[in-house]
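Usage example:
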Amino acid sequence: MKEIKYSKAIEKLDEVIHKIEQEDVDVDELSLRVKEAVQLIEMCRSKIEKADLEVKQIVQTFQSQDG
Amino acid sequence: MLYDDSFLTVSQLNDFIKDVLQMGFPQRVWVCGEIQGYNRNKDKSHVFFELCEKELQSNKVVARIGLVIFSGRKAAINDILDHAENAFQLKDDIEVKFLCKVDFYPPHGAVRLIVESIDPTYTLGKIAQEKQRLVALLKKKGTFERNKALPFPVVPLGIGLITAFDSAAYNDFMAELASSGYGFTVLCRNTLMQGKKAEKDVCQALDTLQNLSEVDLIVITRGGGSIAELSCFDSQLIAEKIAEIKVPVVSGIGHEINMTITDMAAYAFQKTPTAVARYLVERIQDFLTGLNRRGQDLLGKAQDIIKEREQKLTQSVQDLRQGVFYSLTCQKQELTRFEKSLALFPFRILKRSAENIQSQQKALGAGADAFLKNAGARLKHCRTIVELARPENLFRKGFSLTRLPDGSVLKSIEQLQSQDIVRTKLLDGCFESRVNHIYKEESLEGDQVQ
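Running the assembly step on the lines above writes:
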């Protein structure tokens, strides 16, 4: 899947999930949509984890300088 | 005295005048007036000079008289002056009160006053009186306040000096400045500091120095002296010049109890040249101390600010951390919610679709049954109708089929002619018959059609 910005990914995800929740998805497309949503979730989760790790490292660097 | 002789010799006249005068002034008299012509004769053994009286407004001499201080009286008079509370010396232009003997000097034919004593308090009083008048006038005009209203230079290092060059005052002043070690620049205008001409010279010096860019302030100083000596600094001209110029003036003339009008007009005054120099040095020291204190204040404030900013920064880092983690947690929760939705809703869709299909199927089954049932019934009905319509069944019930000789089926009496031979078929055989009568209606008994 093409790398996209988190905000775009979450927007897209929100849209897909909303459609699925509203049962507004054609059965033919359902598995495709679910697959897409799962991929987006994975992408977002890895982005969050990466950001989390980076922030922790940055703050740690900052605090060790400060101390 | 003989008037009969009709004339007198000059000496006789003069002696006579002398006698008359002596009779008229048997005692010494106190005479007040302004000294003139004293300075140029003061070093002679007998000092001849004049006293004069001036008109108050015009300053014009209205009366004058010659005086002499004989060498024998000089010491006594100087002694009186020296012991006066504010010593002064005889000189031109001062008001004095002499105790005199009115004398006539026959060889010159002139009236003269022989000075025997002096009242110094009169002179001092006159000077004080004049000074008071001037002070009151200048105060009223605001002359004393104008130089004081100027901004004092923050670092008064460029000094315009008005004093007699190389005098004791000059040397004291310069020595004190030099001992401070600060980089003063002194531009000295050699100036008359006593006598009649001092007033104008000081004014010119003020004008000259105030126009020099190096000059931050002007100092007027001289060593102490008698009130009479310093009286040239009780000057309206100098005071007004000081009020007029744009540079602060610091004066050091005489001593504090004898503050001159120049001192009053100046921005500040000190007792002596040394004191003036010290005053300036102190201004520089004040500046440096102030600078130092302000530097420390600045440093303190800067440190406070840095500390405050550091605390804010630390707080910001904590806020950032919490904010970031909170935000990331929220995002994670949202993803989890999405995951839950994904785990649930697609199956719900599939289930719903399956259910739909099932219900469609059911509906379809029920519909087909009904249709078939209906179709069967209709078919049976049709079959019955068809069965009923079969010729055999009709023949069996008694119906028959009659044909004309040309073979066509007889359906109407209109087709018949009397005597026609028709052939009628029944279930089990057929017969031929001849038409006798034709009737319009079914009436086998009668109603013959003709």
